[in-house]
Amino acid sequence: MEKERSELAARIDVAYVARLARLELTEEERATFQRQLDEILGYVRKIGELDVAGIEPASHGLVVCNVFRRDEPRPGLDAETVLRNAPARLGDQFQVPKIVE
Question: Which of 6, 7, 36, 73 lies 20 to 30 Å (CA to CA) from residue 64?
Answer without folding.
Answer: 73
